[in-house]
Amino acid sequence: MDLFSILTLGLVQGITEWVPISSKTQDAFVYLNFFHGDPSLVVPILLYLHIGTVLAATIYFRKEILELIKAVLQKPTALKEHSNSTTGFLFTSLLFTGVIGVPLLLLEKLFFPTLDGSMLLALMGAGLLLTGFLLLGQKNAKARPASSVTWADGILTGVLQGLSVLPGVSRSGTSTTGLIWRGFDSESSFHLSFLLSIPTVVFAELVFYIGGGLAAFPISEGFLLALSSFFFGYLTLGTLLKIVRRVNLSYVAFVLGALMLVAAFLHAG
Q1: What contacts 222, CB < 8 A, 6 or more positions away?
Q2: What angle do CA 252, 101, 117 make, to 5 degrees?
Q3: Which residues does 214 contact at the CB level (< 8 Å), separation at least 6?
Q4: 8 A C-beta contact, residue 22 and residue 169
């Protein structure tokens, strides 16, 4: 993979990871259609790109992460206190994401490389349409702040986020939908969603690493992809978080989904 391709994919991931239009779908679309890439390499490329943006999110939220770790270390046995906090929310969300997402993730790993370009486009387009409907169903609640989150909020959030392993379905779109349905305001929903992205992506990377998902791609190129997505992701995170809190992106998801379905039809023909 040449440097231009690496930088372009890093830029796409660095921008779309913070926007609820499924970064993995946009990455795969660019790789398959603009660079005419190998469908069997889509999964490892996505994994390396997400390593970069999860590092960017970790640095961005470093103060809050350190506070959570410090609170747990100071009172390691205070389970009730931790469960009724951000720590409990993250744990429960990750648990239910795994229950729903791991079986889907393993199936995707098994069947994704066997699909041709038109089928991949069709699945991604359908997933984006689903994302659009989820975003359209969000209500701008103005009730609960992020500080009121508990373990119970993680159940619905985790279940919906588990669906995001499907092509075209946005992780941030599903998780913010779950949080808004639980009564959180838009700003708190996006804040908690992107904090949740850190353990979620780390968990997904471990699942694929154990299963050998990263072995199919050269480490040197994977490192450059991660570095590229980290650079662009950290550069754009703050600005894009402010934008997505105020803009309804459901129509963007609908348009992109429809375009991918059209592209799938043309590709098949």
Answers
A1: 44, 45, 47, 48, 214
A2: 55
A3: 44, 47, 48, 208, 222
A4: yes
- Residue pair 164/101 in contact by the 8 Å Cβ criterion: yes
Three-class SS of residue 213? coil
Kindly report, residue by residue over 195-244, the tens digit of the pLDDT: 999 999 888 777 766 666 666 678 899 999 999 999 999 999 888 777 76
Structure tokens at 184: 């959180």
Report yes or no: 182 and 176 within 8 Å, Cβ to Cβ. no
Evaluated on CA atoms 232, 238, 241, 243, the torsion sign reads negative
Q: What is the DSSP string of 169-204?
A: --HHHHHHHHHHHTTB-HHHHHHHHHHHHHHHHHHH
Residue for token pair 């305001």: 185
Q: 209 is written with which tokens? A: 């690493």
Q: How far, rounded to the nearest angstrom, does the alpha carbon of residue 195 sit from its chain's CA centroid? A: 11
Summarised one tens digit per residue, pLDDT across range 94-130 is 999 999 988 887 787 677 666 666 777 788 788 888 8
Phi and psi dihedrals of 184, rounded to 5?
-85, 150
CA distance 87 to 195: 11
- Residues shown for the chain: 269
Total domain count, the chain: 1
The CA distance from 87 to 103, in Å, is: 25
**Residue 83 is part of which domain span?**
3-268
Write down the pTM of the prediction.
Answer: 0.82
Distances (CA, A) of 167 to 18, 34, 67, 161: 17, 18, 34, 13
